[in-house]
Amino acid sequence: MEHLSNIGVIRDVLSRHGFTFSKALGQNFLVNPAVCPRMAEQGGAGPGVGMLEIGAGIGVLTAELAQRADKVVCIEIDDRLLPVLDETLAGYDNIEIVHADVMQVDLPALIAEKFMGMEVAVCANLPYYITSPVIMRLLEQRLPIRSITVMVQKEAAQRLCARPGTREVGAVSIAVRYYSEPKLLFQVSRGSFLPAPDVDSAVIRLDVLPKPAVDAPPEAFFRVVRAAFSMRRKTLLNCLSGGLGIPKAEAEHLLKEAGVPSNVRAEQLQIEQFASIACRLSHAGLPERT
Ligand code: SAM
């Protein structure tokens, strides 16, 4: 179908199918024709590449991906959209819609089965209610994907791409950098969506690293990062002691061993310093306390 991102076409298709937007499923569909081609190109859709999309909507981005890549597989949770997509994407023979919840589906099996060794990249206008969980699910499973290009809320984009040592940094920024190199690509105004959300958006790309950015056991690394950011404005010492459930003296010893000052705050630390604390923690064998 032509002009899928034309707002008149979208309204017509949706009304013919009696479709109403679900806020709970984060359904804000792109209606700005300039955005999807840009996302597809900067997301790496091209010859020889398989694209994995999350959330098809009526298929505006799906179609742009399919015009450039060899194959597109899109996971969509809302069965009401399946007949709509049958109609809007009828002209494409390289698109497969998988009716599933991205948080439940077996992603390694899906990628192996659908892409069969092809180079794979993720590109999606994510439902905002699960932005970080989806991104972390894609990264933590060490999937064979080269990048993740996603539209997220502007504030989330800033947080996800924040550099260690800056005020915007949070636990998720460090987690993302453990697995990937993040980049803020471009901003998208709220008026580019139907219905328009209350906030602006941005597209980011996470280039997945061949191996984690630092040499630290993941379990201990994420335990330390979570604890370090558990109480904003508190010192690292207090956060680690509280977050790891250990006496202050023990936390102080841990920091000393790792060569990290105890009176700094988590946002001042570089990723190597989190790794160093995690290595000591893992070495000390401190069990998780609940
Ligand atoms: N790609 C379309 C676009 O850009 O217009 C739609 C984007 S809309 C922000 C998010 C889409 O994700 C919706 O189609 C929604 O039904 C779908 N979705 C929401 N939660 C999902 C989940 N857990 N798994 C898979 N798809 C989901």
Describe the overall structure.
There is one protein chain. With 290 residues, the chain is an alpha/beta fold. It has two domains: 7-208, 3-Layer(aba) Sandwich (Rossmann fold), CATH 3.40.50; 218-284, Helicase, Ruva Protein, domain 3, CATH 1.10.8.100. It has twelve helices and nine strands. A seven-stranded mixed sheet has the order 4-3-2-5-6-9-7, with helices on both faces. It has a two-stranded antiparallel sheet with strand order 1-8. Strand 3, helix 4 (82-88) and strand 4 form a beta-alpha-beta unit. Helix 2 (35-42) packs across helix 3 (60-68) and helix 6 runs parallel beside helix 8 (171-179). It is elongated and about 65 Å long. The protein starts with 6 loop residues before the first helix and ends in a 6-residue tail after the last helix. The relative contact order is 0.11. The site of S-adenosylmethionine has 23 residues, from strand 1, helix 3 and strand 3. S-adenosylmethionine binds at residues 25-30, 54-57, 60-61, 75-78, 81, 101-103, 125, 127, 130.
The topology string of helices and strands comes to HEHEHEHEHEHEHHEEEHHHH
Percent of residues in β-strands: 15-25%
Number of domains: 2
Give the overall shape.
elongated
State Rg: 21 Å
Question: What small molecules does the structure contain?
Answer: S-adenosylmethionine
What's the arrangement of strands in the largest beta sheet? 4-3-2-5-6-9-7
Query: How far apart are the first and last residues' alpha carbons, in Å?
Result: 55 Å
